[in-house]
Design goal:
There is one protein chain. The chain has 6 helices and 7 strands. It has 272 residues and is of the alpha+beta class. A hairpin with a 4-residue loop joins β4 and β5. The longest helix is centred in the C-terminal third of the chain and has 44 residues.
Length: 272
């Protein structure tokens, strides 16, 4: 596979996400969510970047939004440099730090050079834009997502200790998410903008397989025991972490979406 170009460490751009340090999250799942949620706030970009926006009074307004967002796949694969959004697929994340200190999972994980593949296969399933009440809802699905890179981990997963560093990979199938964005109107330069107040997010994953190499300094027996435990109990572990993962993603959605909504007025996104 060809390695994608390294993304810049943006700090003041529209996607200031690299590197990332999260607390109380699990493995690469939180990382995956970071790349699902931008799809759920792409409507303003999609409608502004494509010709013929969706008129808010159109009878098929919601379906028009869905179609525009899905039509953006080729553009998102190339990236939107003027918005400081890199290629969606493949995507390289330089560093991710995950820390979880309580409950069945207690780990300190540092992942570097993480390559994400499969994002471009997203499908926006539904969109509900309620401009009278300043509320937006989006649902998105991914048939599969594959992540690989280098990882260093120390801690405990369920009943087994875990320690080591080396190449790791994870594969996720039937990933879906729903985001609800709520806000209020604000005016600037005689234009009406959507001011984002609150975000709610839910993530669902049908199946996940995770594998880490070189655990316990290359001890094959212990390494296989931990990998088998993660494979057989991924759902139990993820459900334990899901509320915190959702909260983390909500904060990240709000950061990105707020920047998008400040750039585009409601008339630019949804013409009258």
């Amino acid at each position: 596979m060809t390695t994608p170009p390294r993304l810049p460490l943006l700090r003041n751009g529209i996607l200031p996400l690299y590197p990332i340090s999260l607390t109380r999250s699990f493995r690469n799942m939180a990382s995956i969510l970071r790349y699902i949620f931008p799809l759920l706030v792409m409507a303003p970009i999609c409608l502004s970047e494509t010709k013929g926006g969706c008129g808010r009074n159109d009878p098929d307004f919601s379906q028009c939004v869905v179609n525009r967002m899905n039509d953006m796949r080729p553009t998102l694969k190339k990236g939107l440099p003027h918005l400081k959004i890199g290629s969606l697929d493949p995507m390289l994340v330089p560093m991710i730090r995950l820390k979880q200190g309580n409950g069945p999972v207690s780990i300190d994980l540092i992942s570097t050079d993480q390559i994400f593949r499969g994002m471009i296969n997203y499908e926006i399933k539904s969109a509900n834009i309620d401009l009278q009440n300043y509320k937006m809802e989006f649902t998105v699905t991914l048939p599969w997502l594959y992540v690989e890179g280098e990882s260093k981990i120390e801690g405990r997963i369920l009943v087994l200790p875990i320690r080591g560093s080396g190449h790791s990979w994870s594969n996720y199938t039937s990933v879906s998410g729903k985001a609800v964005l709520m806000g209020h109107p604000t005016r600037k330069d005689d234009k009406e903008f959507f001011n984002l107040d609150k975000v709610k997010f839910d993530i669902f994953v049908k199946k996940a397989t995770m594998h880490m190499n070189n655990l316990f300094n290359g001890n094959q027996q212990l390494g296989e025991a931990v990998n088998t435990l993660m494979k057989e109990n991924w759902e139990v572990v993820f459900q334990e972490m899901k509320p915190v993962v959702d909260q983390t993603v909500e904060a990240l959605i709000k950061d990105i979406a707020s920047k998008v909504f400040k750039r585009y007025s409601l008339d630019e996104m949804f013409p009258k």
